[in-house]
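During the first year of the project, the team set up a workflow for recording each protein of interest as an amino acid sequence followed immediately by a discrete structure-token representation. This format lets reviewers and collaborators read both layers of information side by side without switching files. As required by the reporting guidelines, we include two representative entries from the current panel. The first entry is reproduced here exactly as it appears in our internal archive.
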Amino acid sequence: MNKKKSVSGIFFSMFLRTVVIILAIVIVAMSVVLVKQKLNRKNTDQAGDSEVDESILTEEDGQDVLLGSPEDNAGGEEGGAVQQNTSFDKKIVVLNGTETKGLAGHWRDTLASYGYQNLDAKNYYSRLEQTKVLAAEDGVGTDLLQYFPNADYQVGTLTSDETDASVDGVDIFVIIGTSDDVLSQQ
């Protein structure tokens, strides 16, 4: 026997088939979008990993200078916690203690590229062989020693008779000596 379908039965049957087809298309489209996002994220992560220069992350001996060592922990914190001693927010004046023109500006720009922001470059009236990091407070500016590994570190300040820089409010003076004269060594 042949059953005749009513108009409403045919409509309902077609409606269900259409809904199933639309749902299948939506599922496939969402899958494609998710796969593309995953691939883009993976490519971005891989590109970021390949651009990192590992030598800027730690020193050769594996000691992270920015974190320091437990001996550098001026806060006396218990449990091996190490105080992070950075100078990114300090006022730093880079002084040229050599005869090479533009050296203080070069080092100011170099430090700016590492994230230091409150920088100025001026001249020091005497000539130095060894670079000197002169900090207003003990422990401040020790993170700068990673860029000047042979520098002397001292606590103190300068007078206006020693430099053409304004000495008021300066937290750290970096006086570049011939040991870090990278412009004449090129």
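The second entry, processed by the same pipeline in the following quarter, appears below.
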Amino acid sequence: MIKGCVLMDPDESSWREPIRAAIVQTELKLGDIDVNLSRARDIIDDMKGSSDLLIFPEMFSSGFAYDDLEEIATRSPDVIRFMKGVSIELSAHLMFTMAERDGGHVVNRAYLMGPDGDVLGHYDKTHLFSPAGEDVHFKGGDELNMLHMGQIRMGPLICYEIRYPEMSRKYALDGAHILVYMAQWPAKRIFQWELLLRARAVENQCFVIGSNICGLHGSTEMGGHSMIVSPFGEVLTSLEGKAGWASSELDPERMYRFRRGIPAMKYRRPELYHNIDRSNLI
């Protein structure tokens, strides 16, 4: 687990300069890595020099094609190679997830890649979406991993994990500046996605970036509506249901100013709500 609580970066000394962050919303063809990377390529070709940080949707290169999962996992080096080329070409940091074999299991792994193509860290999805069988086909991770873009601390979370506010709060208490959610979220529940992204931003006083897939996942229409949200809860930029990209400036002073004005974290009383009676839970 993440060690040490820095209480929301009280000295405001670590992240000082604004950056540009982008959401990259791709359209999925289930199980077809070559087509999905080609579709991403079409968007990337329009992005040169636009952003310092690009966030891609969960499993954007394949989707959850369970029948072909073993073969998909063997192609993780191809996806890594493609993304390294993108990071170098755009001179930008990238975050994305893919299916990857780790020992005897397949994991849903998020990577942070630097502008020189180096892998700077990873996070394995810990909360698997059992209603769709993800827990049958994947092994969940066992720890949260803060990822670092220079002095900027980012908390990676994957899709379903937006429903667990304890996770984002843990990252926030350990000093996260940005919470990143990569998702395959369906259109029929897209209002929840939008609501939860804004809630996670306000309650944790962090920037939030949510990148979602679009197109069909089998017979399910995926929702898109990727967005970047300020710590105040404002939608800084967003997309609708089609493939594309959008970017926004993230100015740390806006975050620090909001935290100074409403110092909610400073007055937490964890002794009141950390000892939960679980006897009444289903």
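For the second entry, the following points were noted during internal review. The radius of gyration is 18 Å. The chain has eight helices and 15 strands. Both points are flagged for discussion at the upcoming steering committee meeting.
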